[in-house]
Write a structure and sequence with these properties.
DUS-like_FMN-bd, FMN, 2 domains, globular, 44% helix, two-stranded antiparallel sheet, 342 residues, Aldolase_TIM, single chain, EC 1.3.1.-, alpha/beta, nine-stranded parallel sheet, DusB-like, TIM Barrel
Length: 342
């Protein structure tokens, strides 16, 4: 247990910390987000200075069954530490999948007990596991025993307001060998509505001594410092605030200066090319649309509906990027100002 005043003086976001003996280069972590933090996005975020990046959620049983999508999700290239997040509802498959990802270069295995999506919780995975702490612990124990790399855990405050059990599960997870815990300051039933409760995360800090990461509604450096102060956490995790700006974690951590207009436009073009290369043209076109939409919303809000539709529906990669570049270059709102206000 940590003394309650031990974490009042927080280290700088730019400073290192450790997870199970592994060095993390700063205290701003990119959240795992399905459909967002694929390899191209993680590579950019890492290059721009994020402290740590985490793969999209990898379904454990599907990975063991050799599903191509699951294998694609766990890929890494030049990112250290390589952190793979696993999801599942059965201890056997979680353990087998953990062995696979550790054998394929994962330095850290993260367990997903936070995803609120109905298609995940409906299968009794993600945050649904918080409804049965004993069962959740059986998955945690099996995963820890299966590998020699650190195992971490990401979860919410609880299933709903009547079952805030994150402190209980966190303490038991630490006792089972988990080396770091991330808490999103909402219950599952809140999904992403309302405001994350940063103060509620402190109840987890009070019962564990391993590193704690606080997550939820962190968009600015002021947010990052405030959530650390109120939660007592060691680091912050950002998710939706990084959509349309893969450099954002690095900016918050002080790894880089805020990119200027030319660098932002060049990054969008590079990101698009990386996605086409990673997925192939047909699939890459579809996956890239959400990212291009976020870039346009942030940096070219003057783009007409027709102009945006032309970008989103085109099947010609050259036309897509040309129209996107034109829209960003003609942005009525200065790029850095628009980004800072987001």
């Amino acid at each position: 247990m940590c003394p309650k005043d031990e974490h009042l003086q927080k280290p700088a976001l730019s400073s290192q910390f450790e997870v199970g003996g592994l060095a993390v280069r700063n205290r701003v972590v990119l959240a795992p987000m399905s459909g967002v933090t694929d390899l191209p996005f993680r590579q950019l975020a890492w290059r721009f200075g994020a402290g740590m990046v985490v793969t999209e959620m990898v379904a454990s049983r599907e990975l063991v069954g050799n599903a191509a999508e699951s294998w694609a999700r766990l890929r890494s290239s030049g990112i250290d530490p390589h952190v793979v997040q696993l999801a599942g509802r059965e201890a056997h498959w979680m353990a087998e999948a953990a062995k696979i990802v550790a054998g394929n270069g994962a330095a850290i295995v993260d367990i997903n007990m936070g995803c609120p999506a109905k298609k995940v919780t409906g299968g009794y995975s993600g945050s649904a596991l918080m409804r049965d702490p004993d069962h959740a612990l059986s998955l945690i124990e099996a995963t820890v025993k299966a590998v020699n790399v650190p195992v971490t855990l990401k979860m919410r405050l609880g299933w709903d307001d009547q079952s805030i059990n994150a402190p209980l599960i966190a303490r038991r997870a630490q006792d089972a060998g988990v080396r770091m815990i991330t808490i999103h300051g909402r219950t599952r039933m809140q999904f992403y509505n309302g405001k994350a409760d940063w103060d509620a995360i402190r109840a987890v800090r009070d019962v564990i001594s391993i590193p704690l990461i606080a997550n939820g509604d962190v968009a600015t450096a002021d947010d990052a410092h405030e959530i650390l102060k109120r939660s007592g956490a060691d680091a912050v995790m950002i998710g939706r605030s990084s959509q349309g700006r893969p450099w954002h974690a690095g900016v918050l951590a002080g790894s880089i200066a805020h990119p200027g207009t030319a660098e932002i436009i060049a990054t969008v073009e590079e990101h698009y090319a990386m996605m086409l290369d990673f997925y192939g043209v047909d699939v890459g076109l579809r996956h890239a649309r959400k990212h291009l939409g976020w870039y346009l919303d942030r940096f070219a809000p003057q783009t007409t509906g027709a102009g945006k539709a032309a970008i989103m529906t085109s099947t010609d990669p050259a036309a897509v990027i040309a129209r996107t570049m034109a829209a960003l270059s003609a942005g009525a709102v200065p790029l850095q100002e628009s980004d800072a206000a987001a």
